[in-house]
Structure formats: C-alpha cells, structure tokens
Amino acid sequence: MEIGSVLRESRLNSKMSVEQVSKILTEQGYKASQKTVYSWENGNSRPDIEILMKLCDIYGIKDILKTFGYNGYKEDGSLQLNMNEIDMVEKYRFISTYSPNGASVVNMILDRESAIATQLKEQSEYIKKLKLHNNNNDFIDPYADIPDTLEELEKQQQPEILLPDEKNHAG
Fold first, then answer.
1. What span, in angstroms and rounded, lies between the C-alpha atoms of 30 and 54?
2. Contact 73, 79 (CB under 8 A)
3. Second label for 30, Cα 20 to 30 Å away, from 68, 104, 106, 170?
C-alpha cells in the first residue's frame, strides 16, 4: 500500500480535514501547509520520518508497520527483515561461529517455542470455530481438545523416546 493513500485513509478515518492536520502540524513547529499535506496524500512527495510519526500519532495509528503494509515479506516473496530480526540473525551467526553448543541450545529453544506457538494458534482457531458454531446454537465442548496443564501440552508435543534397554523390557 502506498504511504500517501494510507495517510489519506487514516485522516478520513480520523474525521479530520487537511486544514486541521496542517494546522496541528504547523502549531507544533512543522512546515506543513495544506498543499504539502495534499502532496503527501497524492504520492507526489513524502513526509520525513519525524512528520510521518507525528501523523501516525495524530491519526491514532498504533501498529505503524501493519498499517503501512509491512508483513515481513517483499513483493517477490522473499523475507524482509526488520532491524530487530537482523540483530538476532547476526547474534545467531556469532554464536554459531564461536559457541556451537550455544547454537544447539538456541535451535532447541526455537523448535520448542515454535511447537508451542503452533499449538496455541490451533487452539485459537478452534475457539474461533466454536464461536461460529455457538452463533448457530450448536454445542461443542470448548475444552475437549485443550490440555489442562503445561506438562500435558509438552507431553503432546514430544513423542516418548524409548532407549534400547527399555524396548526389551517394555513387553
């Protein structure tokens, strides 16, 4: 989504006129005539980052990245990392180079947390499904497939591993 169209849509959603936005910015020391605001909204120019952040504040935009279309991917489908993600990748590469055991620990934690997040996502989708059924007056036990404890959740995610000696005694 283009910055200008997002700014225009956000202003309209805020029920503000270009004149009001221009006045607020000017009163706060920014150079922003009505013509300038129109220019931003039409895509003829772009506000600098400080003014953009101020506009987001004026319009009540909380999730700036999402509002302006950042989803973590470029148009060609490749990853587009933010600064925090780049920092994590650089740290991981450093750990992998100088502390291979540390990289194994990071991998183990990522795998575990990813499994937990997957489970939570499935539960969230299940709850949404329940709400749809509830609107149709169908009854579904919302807790039927949800583990009661964290230990049960972890047990569901990790298969039981038997050592060779235990296989012989198992039966």
1. 10
2. yes
3. 68
The DSSP 8-state label assigned to residue 79 in this structure reads B
* Tokens linked to 171: 């039966």
The share of the chain scoring above pLDDT 70, in percent, equals 78
Spatial separation of the C-alpha atoms in residues 106 and 89, rounded to whole Å: 12
φ, ψ at 76 (rounded to 5°): -85, 0
DSSP secondary structure letter of residue 80: -
Q: What is the DSSP letter of 47?
A: -
pLDDT tens column, 123-143: 988 888 877 766 665 555 656
Rounded-to-integer distance, Cα 146 and Cα 44, Å = 53
Three-state SS at 110: helix
| Residue of 41, 34, 53, 59 whose CA lies nearest to 2 | 41
Dist. CA 18–CA 66, nearest whole Å: 23
